[in-house]
Amino acid sequence: CFNCHTQKTPLWRRDPNGNTLCNACGLFQKLHGTMRPLSLKTDVIKKRNSRRSSVNGEGVGNNTSTN
């Protein structure tokens, strides 16, 4: 990354000047219009758990009515 010098990221982005940024720095720059401070840098990429519906089909996204 041009800003924080990280080597691994889930997604590479570019700033308006064409410099390669990691996902975190790219999103920060897009939202705030300035480079992300190095004090926010972490060495760990956190994984999220995927949403899965329950066994009986009444999980996420199932909004059928019984009326």
UniProtKB/TrEMBL annotation:
Keywords, alphabetical: Metal-binding, Nucleus, Zinc, Zinc-finger
Q: Which Pfam families does UniProt cross-reference here?
A: GATA
Which residue intervals are annotated with compositional bias (Polar residues) in the record? Answer: 52-67
Q: Where is the GATA-type domain?
A: 1-48
GO BP term, example: negative regulation of transcription by RNA polymerase II
Record has Nucleus as a keyword: yes
Q: Where does it primarily localize?
A: nucleus
Can you name one GO molecular function term for this protein?
Answer: RNA polymerase II cis-regulatory region sequence-specific DNA binding
Tell me which Gene3D superfamilies the record gives: Erythroid Transcription Factor GATA-1, subunit A
Where does the record say this protein resides?
A: Nucleus
Any one cellular component term from GO for this entry?
A: nucleus
Q: Which top-level group of life is the source organism from?
A: Eukaryota
The record's InterPro entries line, in alphabetical order, gives: Transcription_factor_GATA, Znf_GATA, Znf_NHR/GATA
Does the keyword section mention Translocase? no
Q: Where is this region: Disordered?
A: 45-67
Identify this protein by name: GATA-type domain-containing protein
The species this protein belongs to is Wickerhamomyces anomalus (strain ATCC 58044 / CBS 1984 / NCYC 433 / NRRL Y-366-8) (Yeast)
Query: Source organism lineage?
Result: Eukaryota, Fungi, Dikarya, Ascomycota, Saccharomycotina
